[in-house]
Amino acid sequence: MVDVMLIYLIVISFLAFLLMGMDKYKAVKGKWRIPEKKIWLCSLVGGAWGSTIGMYAFRHKINHQIFRWGLPFMAILQLVLFWKLS
Prior knowledge:
InterPro entries: Cold_shock_CspA, DUF1294. By secondary structure, this protein is an all-alpha fold.
């Protein structure tokens, strides 16, 4: 069971990382953006680590206080939850 949870967290975090990268790319190119709701939803269902890493790797949304503090906080909560469930 732990293996399945870990694989799920890795996959959803990778997707969240890609979402941040795609949104940054679209922002630079002036294209239609990915809604913040989708980024938050992906983060909420387990991708907070990927979103947090993507936020800093792509320097995207780091000026938004809710992202700067919310995503790392959510990532820590997910880590603790995973640790408690494993």
